[in-house]
Amino acid sequence: MSKKVIIIGGVAGGASAAARLRRLDLTAEIIMLERGEHISFANCGLPYYIGGTIKERSKLLVQTPEMMKKRFNIDVRTRSEAVSVNTAARTVTVHSQEQGTYEETFDQLILSPGAMPIRPKIPGIGHPRIATLRSIPDTDRIKALVDEEQVRRVTVVGGGFIGVEMAEVLRERGLDVTLIEAAPHLLAPFDADIVTLAEKELEDHGVRLILGTSVEAFRAAEDGGLHVELSGREAVPADLVVLSIGVVPETAFLKDTGIELGPRGHIRVDAHMQTAVAGIYAVGDAVEVTDFVSGSPAAIPLAGPANKQGRIAADHLCGLNSIYRGSQGTSILKVFGLTGASTGKNERALTKAGTPYHTVTVHPGSHAGYYPGASPITLKLIFDREGAILGAQAFGRSGTDKRIDVIATVMRLKGTVHDLAELELAYAPPYSSAKDPVNMAGFVAVNALQGLSPVITAAQLAGGGLPEAALLVDVRTPGEFAKGCIPGAVNIPVDDLRGRLDELDRSREVVVYCQVGLRGYTASRILIQNGFSVLNLTGGYRSYEIAGYRPAGS
To answer: N or C of the chain: less Cβ packing under 10 Å?
Structure first.
């Protein structure tokens, strides 16, 4: 007897589950319920369609109901919202715009309800020129306003990935763009000592940043636009406001069903993506999964994990023992000419959890320096005292993606910083260096753990200053020193250091730095082997500059 499976919601998780289920079972009756018109679309591509990089709207539609029916024989019902689930009776109550309200029975159920944008209860939030970006209709609305030249000034509220991407694409269309973020910095996955690279890139391209400031109200203007009223600042005029301040799971219809929900409404599942109710699965943005690094529950709404979760749910439903081992939150974004990518935990998360960690930062070239076109990559590595990799972050103009992907892979396979140092990676001058940036990060981390070159970070210097009674020594050339240095430093070039050791007080700890850390490492080895206690500023003066950058509106 064939089974009857209802899938609530499409896009990444639900559509992947449906296709996988059909490939595994040709006889199952599969019904997909989708509240909207589109069952599977490229939601990560929406900003780029608004910006004009993606020219054809049809390219955003990954699967249509007609395609799913023809290829996979799936009964797709759009404009059909699941309003309640009776787990005891195994029924779903459906409200259809065409058929009215009815009940549908099921043998198994896959929940992929997704999440909806947060719209806080701020005065004036209902103004017609305040938009969110989550769906194709949202996209059509924003693009129409921009295409019809009804918009000149845009304010983006929220500095997450979508907010930054929207600021970029709208600025590239020639609009005046202001980006407001309540936190001190943009892009929460990145730490404060590296995210300033993205903030500077946005400012360099004409995006006005207002950081550490919350929106208090929206007030209608006489010209049809509105004023965005801020805490402690002048109001910002706008013809359009795009809200991008996060999402909440759409799980209210599951209340009192026996399906367990987390504290923020996310559906709790096991390693097979099965809920507390046998035969009912959940995938995508609405689920609470295991954080791969910490092992604790987490909500990580990303397209890649959602697709994998859909596949795993279908596998287990069909008797295959597929397991979801958690998400490490690997992500990437484009910021004009810059690429930012991260994986695992950042310092804030580890500090909040009370997890001890170490960090190092390197600034190697994207490929061999003697081959034209090389550009620096800022790569930060976070690890524990045993060398286990806890996270990594990077910004650069070329090659950033593959470095974070390599580190994410080593993390997934439970590798360490020692493995990063030993990896054999593809090398030719146009693509990398004989010592790849990943290797370089591994070398520096291993040296720090082995005590060969203990490090201090730019954030530590900025937060607490130098260790008590320490001597700060700049080992760059006099010309570099004259162009800018850390206050209080004395200049002894590394090539002169051996002959000038008597200028240093052996009773004082010495903190050395160069431009990016390499000469500082050499200097630390000279000093350590001459009896000095030494710390090398990881990432050098370059990291100090990055950490110290402050946008004009912060």
So the answer is: N
